[in-house]
Amino acid sequence: MIDRIRVQPGGQGLFEFTDQILASVARAKVDDGLCTLFVQHTSASLMIQENADPSARRDLERWLARLVPEDDALYTHTQEGPDDMPAHVRSALTATSLSIPIAEGSLVLGTWQGVFLWEHRRHPGTRTVVVHIKGD
Fold first, then answer.
1. Half-sphere exposure of 30 (CA within 13 A, CB side)
2. Which of 11, 86, 88, 136 is most enclosed, with most CB atoms within 10 A?
């Protein structure tokens, strides 16, 4: 089964959409299998991360912003604004696809794990995540 999830981030940062993936898995009616996610954008990425304490997400966001700053003199791809090239670099350093096992009809995530879109642009549009579910 292939599904598409639309995520509308409000700006840069980590946006959890685990519930939407769980709904896709439920519609697929797969007991055991694999859920593969792929974000169809070059300036956003995907991440499995702690969903209990928001400070963990804030720390990750600040760390990546420090690692890949905006307005670096090295950037020549600047037509779409000062956050565009850093967004591409941040996306290249993180994941654009994830695979999560499905067991007994549910994603096999840990207690504090959630699935997040990591938006790297300040003023993004809607992001599309393709969900491919394969199973028994």
1. 22
2. 86
CATH number of 2-70+79-135: 2.60.120.460
Rounded CA gap, 135 and 103, in Å? 10
Domain ranges of the chain: 2-70+79-135
Burial of 125 (0-12, 13-18, 19+ CB in 10 A): exposed
Task: Say how far apart CA 118 and CA 9 lie, in whole Å.
Answer: 9
Q: Record the pTM.
A: 0.96
Express each pLDDT in 19-51 by its tens digit. Answer: 999 999 999 999 999 999 999 999 999 999 999
Tell me the per-residue pLDDT of 3-26, one tens digit each, with 9 for 90 and over. Answer: 999 999 999 999 999 999 999 999
Taking each helix axis from N to C end, the angle separating 54-67 and 84-93, rounded to the nearest 10 degrees, works out to: 110
